[in-house]
Amino acid sequence: MSDSSFTPIPLFYAARNIGRSPLRLVLTASGAALVVFLVVGAMASVRALDAGVRASGTLGNVMIVGAGSEESVERSEIPASAPGVLAASIKGIRTTAGAVYISPELHTPLPLYREGDPAPEGSARSLALVRGVEPAAFLVHPQARLAAGRIPEVGADEVAVGRSLAATLRIADGDVERNGDRPRVLIDEHPHTVTGIIDAPGVAIDGEAWMPITDLLVLTKRQTISAAIVSLDGAELGDVEAFAARRSDLEVAAIDERAYYEQLAQFFRPVRLLIALSAFVVSVGAMFGGLNALDASFASRSREIAMLQVLGFSRTAVIGSLMQESVLAVATGALPAVLLARLVLDGVGVRFSMGIFSLSVDATCVASGLGAGLMLGLVGCLPPAIRCLRSSIPVALKADLV
Amino acid sequence: MVTTEPIIRCHSLEKHYERGGEPVRVLESIDIDIARGEFVALMGPSGSGKTTLLNLFAGIDTPSGGSLVVDGHDIATLSRAALAHWRSRSVGYIFQLYHLVPVLTAYENVELPLFLHGLSGAQRHARVAEALEAVQIADRYSHYPRQLSGGQEQRVAIARAIVGNPSLLLADEPTGDLDRAAATGVMDLLARLHRERGQTIVMVTHDPHTAERAQRIIHLEKGRLVEPLGAAR
Ligand SMILES: Nc1ncnc2c1ncn2[C@@H]1O[C@H](COP(=O)(O)OP(=O)(O)OP(=O)(O)O)[C@@H](O)[C@H]1O
Ligand SMILES: [Mg+2]
């Protein structure tokens, strides 16, 4: 005689039961689908933000920024002459075929939208980070590569845009290569021709607009630039720091570019928390909706659950079967939700204040979505299951149908 | 009569419930022996404790006092898990409202308790086929409960109760929800199981006509055994 206390109820019992009330199944499944979709979406956003910020720094790069503005390049101001002084003062800056790896840059968020489109309401949504650069920018930022068209020319009101910004502006590679009929955008209400598309997958640059720094100085009526990015080859951070200290008249500070973006990623922690929290709050709502249906579906079966125990199935077996059923019901929503999230969210550009990052619904995101669904199914069925099993068998057998 | 040890032996059996702090004495000093192979009807007015007594026999309720030995097991001393295991081997229970699983076919409903017996698929199939044959419903294998009449549903439920070859078959008003013709059919079936297989049956009923089919009638009133009016049959 085998011990039947661990004999499970066959899986087909749970599988058949999920189809018992199609309406309840739809409610449970859509609640679960919403939760899973949100978890995948939140996870993908957080990871994109984090990865994007971190990948934006390059090993061996040092940023010269205004003293006291080490935390935000956008707020930083340094004299336009500083890069030249630096180049003359420090040995060990990287060069290739005579080109020096020093990139003077002006970073400023400006309203940017396609000419002919209605001006977007609320400036925040249409702000793009516009970076004034010289050709050396492509040397110090190896993540950036001109993918189509050409680099904007000085004094011609031209601009190149990152791949994901181009996507939001509905600009394709072919568009920027059509001489004389290139797409035009308004930057701070000034028309500019888009001459090129820059590929910088997964980093902030992908959501930026690059234009000649002299043009951007004129456009923003500024005399100072934001920063100079230097790639070192032989020199060290300490040398540049010593330079900054020596030339206190320039009022600059030197920081490691990777450290800068690491710290920026820290700065975005509240944003990540906010994303996670809002996903959580909406999830809880969806979860309760879904679980309520599950709960009703179990409660209406308390007699049947008692009958299973009369047959000799243990309470453990009953809980196991209800868990299977709940996980199956949740899975009917969770699996399509994960697929949908992959189809809809993967590659979508998400605009954060520091640029646009493209979401990647990778294995980790899929796993967390499915994990959330599984947890939902397992944990969610426990309260109604325990409630069903709490009453004694004779009482449950007499229970009125709900 | 069968002369071996009784399958049910209860002595001074008590069952109390708490209601609003007050104990409700549902069964009081019940002494009954039921022999193996006996067919007993349990009668009495509503609320007299018939279902409670049957549930004690089935090990789904526990006695408050006295002793109850069913098929060699002292019910009061077994754990819940042990009772469940014992039930899967020894007890077949028939409900007034059938309690078939609506999403399973007749065949699957009958097969369900056999999963507790660790049988192979072929062994289960043979047993289910035999049980459905015995209740004369073998042509309704793939019907769902909603596609069956009440009488047919109860037959499937009886097949489910006997498929594990229980030593004790308990039935709580098995014909209570059926019309006269269907009820007669179900009673014919129970009588045949008793006659042909020597099945021990304890059946609760309100209906004197139905009770007549049993070998012995036990009367309960307000939780006590009573001699029926005009006794001595
Ligand atoms: N869980 C319980 N808690 C309190 N009292 C109970 C409980 N179960 C049964 N009773 C009481 O026990 C008494 C007997 O109930 P039982 O169901 O055994 O009666 P019965 O003879 O089967 O009646 P019927 O013919 O109506 O089915 C009733 O008075 C009932 O109210
Ligand atoms: Mg009753």
Explain this structure:
The complex is a heterodimer of chains A (about 400) and B (about 230). Chain A is an alpha+beta fold and about 400 residues long. Chain A is about 50% helix and about 20% strand. In chain A, the strands form 3 sheets. A 6-stranded mixed β-barrel of chain A has the order 4-5-10-7-9-8. A two-stranded antiparallel sheet of chain A has the order 2-3. In chain A, a hairpin with a 2-residue loop joins β8 and β9. In chain A, α2 (about 20-55) packs antiparallel against α10 (about 255-265), α2 runs antiparallel to α14 (about 365-380) and α13 (about 315-345) runs antiparallel to α15. Chain B has about 230 residues and is of the alpha/beta class. Chain B has a single domain, classed as P-loop containing nucleotide triphosphate hydrolases (Rossmann fold), CATH 3.40.50.300. Chain B contains 7 helices and 10 strands. Chain B has helices at about 50-60, 80-90, 105-110, 120-135, 150-160, 180-195, 210; strands at about 10-20, 20-35, 40-45, 65-70, 75, 90-95, 170, 200-205, 215-220, 225. In chain B, the strands form 2 sheets. In chain B, strands 6-7-8-3-9-10 form a 6-stranded mixed β-sheet, sandwiched between helices. The relative contact order of chain B is 0.19. At the A-B interface, α1, α12 and α16 of A face α1 and α2 of B. The structure holds adenosine-5'-triphosphate and magnesium ion. Adenosine-5'-triphosphate binds near residues 17 and 44 of chain B. The site of adenosine-5'-triphosphate has 12 residues of chain B, from β1, β2 and α1.
